[in-house]
Design brief:
This protein is an all-alpha fold. The chain has seven helices and no strands. The mean pLDDT is about 85.
Length: about 110
C-alpha cells in the first residue's frame, strides 16, 4: 500500500492517499505488515513523527529496515533530521553517508 500512497501523493491526490492509509489501518494487526510498512505510509503522508516512532519500533523488533534506506528517495525528507542520524547510529550505519542529500545513491 505504501507504493500506491506515494504515487498518489506525488500526483497530489491526498484523498486517495488518506483512503489507502485508512484501509491499511483497518488491517493493522496483519502479521504480514511489519513496522516497515507503517514507516513507508507515514513518510508518504508526511507524518515524520510517526515514521520515526515506527523506525524505533522496527529497530526494537529487530526488523530489517536499514538496507531499505540506502537508495530509497522516500527517506530524503528525513535525512537531515538529528533523529534519523541517531537511528542510523543505533544500527551501526554510516551517518555521514546516509544523511547526505543523495542518501548514498550513486550520482
Amino acid at each position: 500500500p505504501a507504493t500506491a500512497a506515494i504515487v498518489y501523493r506525488d500526483l497530489g491526490d491526498t484523498a486517495t492517499v488518506r483512503a489507502i492509509v485508512r484501509e491499511a489501518e483497518s488491517g493493522r494487526s496483519s502479521p504480514s505488515r511489519g513496522h516497515n510498512t507503517w514507516v513507508d505510509l507515514a513518510l508518504a503522508t508526511g507524518d515524520t513523527a510517526r515514521a520515526f516512532a515506527e523506525l524505533e519500533a522496527a529497530t526494537a523488533a529487530r526488523e530489517f529496515w536499514p538496507g531499505l534506506i540506502v537508495a530509497n528517495p522516500m527517506f530524503d525528507s528525513v535525512r537531515s533530521s538529528p533523529h534519523f542520524a541517531a537511528l542510523l547510529r543505533s544500527v551501526g550505519l554510516d551517518v555521514a553517508l546516509f544523511t547526505s542529500p543523495g542518501g548514498g545513491r550513486p550520482h
